[in-house]
Amino acid sequence: MEAVEFLRQINRLEMDIRRIGCKITHFDDLSNDMKMGFDERVQNGKSDMDPAYAKYVHMKIDAEKELNNKLEEYHRIYNEVEAVINEVGGTEAIVLFRIYISNEYMSDIAVTLRYSAEGIRKIHERGLEKVQNILDKR
After folding, report:
1. Angle in degrees, 0-180, between the axes of helices 117-137 and 51-88, rounded to the nearest 10
2. The whole model's pTM is what?
3. Percentage of the chain modeled with pLDDT above 70
């Protein structure tokens, strides 16, 4: 696996987690809208569940399972990426962490670390080379 691809796994998983969270909210809203009719039927002695309501409840449950799986994967990958970045060490580790984990722009990192944009770019490149060397040894 290439260094950038390895480091960007966290961002991909964060987007997946947000997407699944939105799905859960959507299914929850849909099932809540239908639940009102279900509650009325139960009060009137009819305990049958509306098939559409059941469908959204099951879709929400499936999405929650998917979310739990993604969260487990996220924590595993995060720990792996963090360990590799820590192995890189030095300023390269700081820059890699801030780019790939904190999602900061290189220009902002340059300002806060008091480097030129070109200096941060070179530190980033050195860091990626070190990450690649670590990955190649695995």
Report:
1. 100
2. 0.79
3. 86
Give the pair of three-digit tokens for residue 111: 């300002």
Tell me which DSSP letter residue 100 carries: I
Alpha-helical regions (H) of the chain? 3-43, 51-88, 90-96, 106-113, 117-137
Cβ–Cβ under 8 Å, residues 99 and 124: yes
What tokens were used for 45?
A: 């002695």
Helix axes 3-43, 117-137, angle to 10 degrees: 80
pLDDT 10s digits, 45-98: 555 556 777 777 788 899 999 999 999 999 999 999 999 999 999 999 999 999
Q: How many CB atoms lie within 10 A of CB 117?
A: 12
pLDDT for res 59: 86
Rounded alpha-carbon distances, angstroms, from residue 50 to 4, 27, 34: 48, 15, 8
